[in-house]
Amino acid sequence: MTQKPNPLSSIKISGPIPAHLARSVIEETLRNAILDGRLPCGTAMRQQELAILFGVSRMPVREALRQLEAQSLLHVVTHKGAVVAPLIEDNSAETYALRLLLESEALRLSIPLLTDHDIAEASTFIDALERETNYTEIGRLNRLFHMALYGKAPNQRLLKLVEHGLNEEERFLRFNLEAMGLGETSQEDHRELLNLVAQKKVNESILTLRNHLMRGMEVIENYLNSLEQSDKQGSL
């Protein structure tokens, strides 16, 4: 019987990791591997196995896993420990409802503090999205665009929650955008939002953002519903 390859074998470590950087290096390495799919949903993150892989003690591994759990990239499962969290599922409406609240507040706080440089940076992400055809890169650029607009919000805890939601969406888009049949992504919503933000029109910007997120929620819900219907028909 052929044994399935261990997903952790896709992670390559080059040289010893300095002790004072261990937690951050482990966190970033695992985070990238989760986001790009090398560590698929349900993969067990065993502390001893990771400690051996990274050549460190279990303490920085445990701290890194806690950070990834706080970012909703890992879930703790009874009798199994930490596992890579699932992608957006049937709670997408709840997820987007929370994002509406959090991102609207982050945008409200950030707009007055945004500089011309911040606006220009956000514009480069839109331009890149218009040209990009790689679905993995589209998810990343979408997250970077939104964070460029929210990034000046002084409430760091709020920003962390916002980025967690964007991380979840990024993972979903990486593996489902092509199947959703969207093809090249239109950036009309993003350009309209950026134009209002550049003019410091806070209320109008928030309304545009909310409409944008609502449309995203509808697309994802319709896609998930179509998968559910297909599964039901396949089981008949």
Write the layout of secondary structure elements.
Layout lengths: L21 H14 L11 H8 L3 H13 L3 E4 L3 E4 L7 H19 L5 H16 L3 H16 L5 H21 L11 H11 L3 H34 L1
Antiparallel strand pairs: 1-2
GO molecular function: DNA binding; DNA-binding transcription factor activity
Organism: Pseudomonas karstica
Protein name: GntR family transcriptional regulator
Written description of the protein model:
By secondary structure, the protein is mainly α. The chain folds into two domains: 69 residues, Winged helix-like DNA-binding domain superfamily/Winged helix DNA-binding domain (Arc Repressor Mutant, subunit A, Orthogonal Bundle), CATH 1.10.10; 144 residues, GntR ligand-binding domain-like (Four Helix Bundle (Hemerythrin (Met), subunit A), Up-down Bundle). It is 64% helix and 3% strand. It has nine helices and two strands; from the N terminus they run H-H-H-E-E-H-H-H-H-H-H. It has a two-stranded antiparallel ribbon. A hairpin with a 3-residue loop joins strand 1 and strand 2. The radius of gyration is 19 Å and the shape is globular. The two termini are 32 Å apart. The mean pLDDT is 85. Keywords: DNA-binding, Transcription, Transcription regulation. GO terms for molecular function: DNA binding; DNA-binding transcription factor activity. It holds the Pfam family GntR.
Protein traits:
single chain, 236 residues, mainly alpha, Four Helix Bundle (Hemerythrin (Met), subunit A), 2 domains, two-stranded antiparallel sheet, 64% helix
